[in-house]
Specification:
Layout: E1 3-6, E2 13-18, E3 24-29, E4 35-38, E5 44-47, E6 55-60, E7 66-71, E8 75-80, E9 86-91, E10 96-101, E11 107-112, E12 121-126, E13 138-142, E14 149-154, E15 160-165, E16 171-174, E17 180-183, E18 194-199, E19 205-210, E20 214-219, E21 225-230, E22 235-240, E23 246-251, E24 270-274, E25 280-284, E26 291-296, E27 302-307, E28 312-316
Antiparallel strand pairs: 1-28, 2-3, 3-4, 4-5, 6-7, 7-8, 8-9, 10-11, 11-12, 12-13, 14-15, 15-16, 16-17, 18-19, 19-20, 20-21, 22-23, 23-24, 24-25, 26-27, 27-28
Length: 326
């Protein structure tokens, strides 16, 4: 498996996202400029210029027409994917972190960080068909979690919103009323900050990664813990294969400690686990710093990783991968 190295960012990567067709890959980094690449050969198509801070997260609409990004400059922006034009800016009083389009792309969830006297919040925005009709008001604002909310995604049929972050608690909210419906059992839950969250293709379960050196698989409706994957380093990013029963975890020691150790000691590799048996089945090395972002291509035949080193690595699986026996 020979990786394709993509150097388009000057600063550490924060998030990776494929479009539904799997032909485009979007990357976010701390360098203000979300970038889009061809997913097969890693060729850069263009950048989206307009943010004045680190871009933490992005999502692309089902038809690949619009991109939404959340940034430390206290805005979330809607973009025309093809032209790179800014369609609308949602302004907040604190940095915007996670963004996620609903099924149907009529709604978007955006989280904002704690800032000064403000607590963290989850905002639901209506997305207009015509950018000229777009308004900035929130249809719903949810508050409650302590600390930063690192991820918020839509649950089945857009009826719920699932959030997770610094307080290590996963919450399910009613997206109509804003009522808190469920919290995960503290006994089986993560013990430290939840850094990442990835849904399965069918939307029946999701995977969380945490600084407590584990990843956990949960039922999306009941919040029942299904599986736990234990590793020896903090987990910054997780992804679920859409094709095989594989999960991939990425991380490494804290970036501030990286310069004091050899890159082999930092364990900067993407680790693959059998989803059912919870056993490690392989790893992919290459990054010279912690892995901050992971994404599987929707066809399951390739995946990408983004690191603290500013590189995106695109990996196409060889035939051996699809015949791994445990």
């Amino acid at each position: 498996m020979r990786p394709i190295l993509m150097k388009g960012h000057e600063r550490p990567l924060t998030f990776l996202k494929y479009n539904r067709d799997g032909d485009l890959l979007f990357s976010c980094a701390k360098d203000h400029n979300p970038t889009v690449w061809f997913a097969d050969n890693g060729e850069r198509l263009g950048t989206y210029r307009g943010h004045n801070g680190a871009v933490w997260c992005c999502d692309v609409s089902r038809d690949s027409a619009r991109l939404i990004t959340g940034s430390a400059d206290q805005t979330a922006k809607l973009w025309n994917v093809q032209t790179g034009q800014q369609l609308f800016t949602f302004n907040f009083d604190s940095p915007a972190r996670a963004v996620d389009f609903s099924v149907g792309d009529r709604l978007a969830v955006i989280t904002t960080d704690p800032f000064m006297e403000l607590s963290s919040a989850i905002h639901v925005k209506r997305i207009a068909n015509d950018p000229a009709d777009q308004v900035g008001e929130s249809a719903l604002i949810l508050k409650g979690p302590q600390g930063r909310i690192n991820r918020a995604v839509w649950g089945p049929l857009n009826r719920t919103i699932i959030s997770a972050g610094e307080d290590a608690v996963i919450r399910i909210w009613d997206s109509e009323t804003g009522k808190l419906l469920k919290e995960n059992d503290k006994e089986v839950g993560h013990k430290k900050t939840i850094t990442s969250l990835a849904k399965s293709v069918d939307g029946s379960h999701f995977l969380t990664g945490s600084l407590d050196k584990s990843a956990k698989l949960w039922d999306i409706r009941t919040l029942t813990l299904i599986k736990t994957y234990v590793t020896e380093r903090p987990v910054n990013a997780v992804a679920l294969s859409p094709l095989l029963d594989h999960v991939v975890l990425g991380g490494g020691q804290d970036a501030s400690a990286v310069t004091t150790t050899d890159h082999r000691a930092g364990k900067f590799e993407a680790k693959f686990y059998d989803k059912v048996l919870q056993e490690e089945i392989g790893g992919v090395k290459g990054h010279f710093g912690p892995i901050n972002a992971l994404a599987f291509n929707p066809d399951g035949k390739s995946f990408s990783s983004g690191g603290e080193d500013g590189y995106v690595r695109l990996h196409h699986f060889d035939s051996d991968y699809f015949n791994i026996k445990i």
